[in-house]
Amino acid sequence: MKGFVATACCIGLCACASQPKEISATPTSVSYEYESGDIADPTHKAQKYCARQGGVAKLQNVGKADGNAVAIFECETAISR
User: How far apart are CA 24 and CA 75, in angstroms?
Assistant: First the structure.
């Protein structure tokens, strides 16, 4: 049973490590470190973040920092029509 609990904990930690990691946030922007090639998860998190700020996330730049993929989003004000 102890082995099962230890394995379950390791799997849980590994799953968290692969999530996009917020590396910078201001009221008007947010940046995430993520697994290279999969921009969907950081985009989804940025949309949620910017919605809380009253805006909509717009991708500004994708690059590398310390060998990791980084996505930078700007929170643009949502305009009602």
Answer: 13
SS3 label, residue 45: helix
- Say if domain 20-77 classifies as CATH 3.30.1360: yes
Asked if residues 58 and 30 have their Cβ atoms less than 8 Å apart, the reply is: no
CA distance linking residue 78 with residue 58, whole number of Å:
11
Sorted by where each begins, the domain ranges of the chain are 20-77
Cα–Cα distance for residue pair 5/16, rounded to 1 Å? 17
pLDDT in tens, 13-56: 444 455 899 999 999 999 999 987 889 999 999 999 999 999 99
For the chain, the maximum distance between any two Cα atoms, rounded to a whole number of angstroms, is: 59
Helix (H, G, I), strand (E, B) or coil at 49: helix
| Reported pTM | 0.73
Are the C-beta atoms of residues 45 and 32 closer than 8 Å to each other? yes
